[in-house]
């Protein structure tokens, strides 16, 4: 086949303006996605302000029955009903007058609620439920330069799939509310879910026992009953990760008995059909867990 020589000065490379446009688009994507990622991961201000506001509102309500504050991570958020929904559900199931406040933060630990724990005490709760992982473990220091590239990859894949830019939710959009965050579709497959769960477990270390002691002592001195809830994971994942109910009980041994702290967990395990990933309950699981929790609170009300 006869070939024709290229014209002098011609080139197969894209013109300079194309490279400049591509660089500008990438720089804009980097700026927008990194800002969203930073805000979601590191901006604690919206959570702190929202928690203080909701605690102050609770403290102003007339006390008609048991007053309960639940503090934890997304395990609590997916595991129990939100505020007024929990109150109505409790009433339907024999617990009248419950005032309930759920304060949750994704991947929360003691550092997230230490700053407003005085507000928790000031709200005059009878019981404070604390998720065991949020009390006894803290997250390793986050590394922006290690975590961001993976976040950028997800942004690119989701944006290509949606044919429009899809950025991570801002910190203000992650606040605890009646509406749950969307379920990450990529975590629905069991293999991906278990991988994410194992990574999550590796990113935590035991909390400083002095900080734990100080927080629990403050509650005890104020006459507030602390109940630590050990949230069960999906049975297959618990087996894979070597998780058992004795682990939380062992951590409780260092807490003085006079603090009156109680550790509890739902007896038995919920099957795989009640979870949407390795640890988080689906709607059916949430109703089962909430029903069990109401029965526990009803029993504790008679002893207070």
Mean pLDDT: 82
CATH fold descriptor: Rossmann fold
Helix-strand makeup class: alpha/beta
Q: Give the name of the CATH architecture.
A: 3-Layer(aba) Sandwich
What percent strand?
A: 5-15%
Cα-based radius of gyration, to the nearest Å: 24 Å
Return residue spans where pLDDT drops below 50 for at least 5 consecutive residues. Answer: none
Helix fraction, binned, reads 40-55%
What overall form do the CA principal axes indicate?
Answer: globular
Order of helices and strands: HHEHHEHHEHEHHEHEHHEH
Count of separate DSSP helical elements: 13
Report the span from N to C terminus: 94 Å
CATH superfamily: SGNH hydrolase
Q: Can you identify the CATH class?
A: Alpha Beta
Count of the domains: 1
Main sheet makeup: 5 strands, parallel
Question: Widest sheet: strand order?
Answer: 2-1-3-6-7
Number of strands: 7
What characteristics describe this protein?
304 residues, alpha/beta, 13 helices
Task: Tell me what you see in this structure.
α1 crosses α8. The strands form two sheets. The chain has a five-stranded parallel β-sheet. Strands 4-5 form a two-stranded antiparallel ribbon. The protein is built from 13 helices and seven strands. It is an alpha/beta fold and 304 residues long. The termini are far apart.
